[in-house]
Amino acid sequence: MHKFVTRIAIVNIGDIRPHEETDMMHTYELVRDILARGVLVKPIVVDEASMVILDGHHRFEALKMMGFKSIPVAMVDYFSDAIVVESWRNNIRPTKAEVIDHARSGILYPYKTTRHMVILDGKRYHISEVVPEVNYKVVANASKPGSEVVEKLVRII
Q1: What is the structure's pLDDT at 157?
Q2: What is this structure's pTM?
């Protein structure tokens, strides 16, 4: 495990806070992909102190939609110098503190605003490239809340 990941844990989905919106169509596609694979390959990356999502908003929404109550996360120290926040958008330059504030306030950034990078050995990597896989088994369960909706969405997509 890379030194910037403090630990991998299974946490209550209600404790996790998004900071940006998601694209519903992409979320539906992820539901389908996760069910087809039978595993969630990468964990949701969160700041350990605030539980704010740094990477994995769509995976988070897909798992919520599938009715999961607990999910795997990679916890990091967001204020480590190894983690840098950038933007996909030219007109928005968020700081780490602003990312946390958006999550806490519930006023989310637009879809695909932030991009979290990690500096390792002088090179920049997107955080998703360096977080370890968890290969968390996902079992389709008709008794989970929302499963009827997920089943219909998977048929539609």
Answers
A1: 40
A2: 0.86
